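Data availability (excerpt). All sequences and predicted token strings are deposited with the supplementary files. A representative entry, Nucleolar protein 10, is shown inline so that the format can be inspected without opening the archive.
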Amino acid sequence: MQISNVNDVKIYNLSYGKSLPEWLSDRKKRQLQKKDVDIQRRIELIQDFEMPTVCTSIKVSRDGQFVLAAGTYKPRIRCYDTYQLSLKFERCLDSEVVAFDILSDDYSKLVFLHCDRYVEFHSQHGHYYKTRIPKFGRDFSYHYPSCDLFFVGMSSEVYRLNLEQGRFLNSLQTDAAENNVCDINPVHHLFATGTSEGKVECWDPRVRSRVGLLDCALSSLTEGAEVRGLPSISALKFNGSLCMAVGTSTGQVLLYDLRSSEPLLVKDHFYDLPIKSLNFHQPLDLIVSADCKIIKMWNRDTGKQFCSLQPQTNINDVCMYPDSGMLFTANEDPKMNTFYIPALGPAPRWCSFLDSLTEELEESPESAVYDDYKFPVKTGPKGLCCLVLLQVKSMANPFAYEEYRKEKIRQKIEESRTQRVQVKKLPKVNKDLALKLMEEGDDEAEEAPRKKKGKVGNGILGDDRFKVMFENPDFQVDEQSEEFRLLNPIVSKVGLKRKKKLRLLAQQDAAEDEEPEGKASSEEESSDDDKSWVEEVREQRRLLRQENRDRRRQERKDADRDTVLLDRGQNQEKTSQPQFYQLKPGEEFRSFKDVAHKQKLQKASLEDRLKMEESSGINSAVDTAVGSKQLTFTLRKSEQQRKQQQAEREHREERKKLRRAAGHLSSSRGRGRGGRGRGRGHY
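Structure token line:
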């Protein structure tokens, strides 16, 4: 609920605050109501008092029990029962509603004018009849004595539909090209229509002839006003037998006495926007006029403003609840606003608690923002001193207002961001553990409402005693340690068991009666889980033993290698004599043996160098800070490879023994060739 004070008039916005999404479950809604302060202060006067997208018009039945609203999308009509403070029914329509009216005291007889020229009648059970008018309609009025419906729209004719006979009657021919609005006087039933040329034509339904013509466009012009176009009539409302209010498309409201062609009063909204709604408040002699930006209440005799309302979204329609200080607005927003002004009258009978609520709020008034401030005027010595101070302030910080404006914009953006999905920030130390605790806390929070006693605390993350565990790197959990690997299967299975238990509790709340077969299956699952974590612990123990053996074997190898290198170094110190080697420019020194080997390779031929590399096997050099280490090794052949090589050698020896000369096989063409081939052609 939002409280505003305009001209010392308290205005209570009962629909102010956050609205809960429809897709949330009841449990989630209850949790939000407990946590969010704005939702706790929200007053839901009528349940689901909103439309899916936009509300176009709203009305109250004559008995005051039902509130009907038309909106989109999809086109629909909703009826709310004020005695039950909830939605009574909802009916979807084929097209959008331009205007509708309630013909009975309750919701049993309704008429809808659609945007596609159709006129639809509804009874208490639903759709009753549907017909069509020749031109697109904009407004209609019902004449109770003759049961006639008068339709005005994009035509110079006023169509008449008699509901008693069930047929169209002769139309009323006006001088206008188009008619925007119409109304019927509740006392003497004078019919008036507002035209697009800024005129109001009055007709007598008994004789079907025009009895008066008012030129409101010319009367709406005031001194010093800029004329931008011809104002048309956008709103029309009768009050009593002689008073009529007319609203124009340029934002003026003209108050007429039917006995005079000149307006009694002209009220300007100063927004240059069409007047959309006009209402009369009889107890205080007020006129309630509204455009799409603001609702103004002003005295009908003097034009003095009583108060004003400015919703956050554009206004489509305004409806005053009879004999009370409550009014409803249809907006370009899913939510339909409800305002309560105690100065206009008491609260309706179905929400009489609002009177006691507002009285309690008025008994404990809050200090205004500027109660402790004094504002000196510019005239006088004090004012001159203040002007000097203001100039000094502006010179010292010329961008103060811009900084203030940017800060306000940043605050608005932060407020809008709070409605988005909040990302939980993880600590720098033990992120996996913190994420696991957050997930467990969310699961416990979801199951907490089902428990009869106990509340969910903040847990380890919210406890200051464990704060260092997520800040100090010394407390980082080593997942490769032996203790962690042995305990992790047990801890993970305990977490899975907790989640399964929470799911079982949820199923028990959904269905209280359980069969005994379900218990047996849960016992089998628990036994399988026990076996699974035991196997995991055994596997971890086996892996740890294998890693320990490998580590000890590697340590022994490293110790043996260090011992051999140490012995070699001691022997070399005893037997070696100092030798000198010359390093060429650009040559990198690695070790003395390496330098001698390079000098030897440079003097040898390519064939000798290749033979030396083949004889040395595979060489591997590793550079270190103190020189290089060179390892020489040969590949060990397997038993099968040795057997295969031995068999090949034996086969070659056997073939050599069977070799003989082939000289006797030479051709008869010459002995010389045969003799020369004798040395080559044997096998």
